[in-house]
Amino acid sequence: MLGDLGNSIYYLIPEMFRVLKLHGSLYLFSSCKKLAEWLPLFNAYFRYSGMLIWYKKISHSGRYWRYNYEIILIFDKGQPKRYKKKDAVLEVPREKERYVLNQKPVQLIKEILEVATKENDIVLDPFAGSGSVGVACKEMNRRFILFEINPKYCKIIENRLNDVNKTIF
Ligand SMILES: C[S@@+](CC[C@H](N)C(=O)[O-])C[C@H]1O[C@@H](n2cnc3c(N)ncnc32)[C@H](O)[C@@H]1O
Description:
Bound molecules: S-adenosylmethionine
Number of helices: 5
Structural class: alpha/beta
CATH architecture: 3-Layer(aba) Sandwich
Mean pLDDT: 92
């Protein structure tokens, strides 16, 4: 399960735990400022298993420290398998074509999927935005379920998913 949250986090944690299969993992994109608040909330349900760094090179504007990375927290339910060894700092540039704020690059999602999943596994992204998770899953033969509340973004997702076929054939 991959996802971006926000203020909905409090009531969503038990639901995320409920829908995640036993021996599955939750990969949660977080800002470093949210870390202290979120860790105990998730620890009440999941087993915290580590943290990845997405090194973006380009920094967000900040008063003093300019954050050129995002963190991705890993929470497990049971004992999930990992399928590949990989460095936990993932250096992936942001994509030039951007459809939504906080869009994640498809390549970044693929790096995570390579370790966390095998072919035909099911990945849920409850906050799909531009659909990067769906695109990565389709390109890597993972099944996926995306939720997106904004119809404009749903259309973008549909177009991006259709383009995956065009790239393959
Ligand atoms: C930060 S964006 C996700 C960006 C995504 N990770 C990507 O790579 O494009 C968060 C998305 O969650 C959607 N969203 C917010 N509340 C939602 C809800 N209750 N159900 C489904 N989608 C929701 C927003 O419309 C927005 O597109």
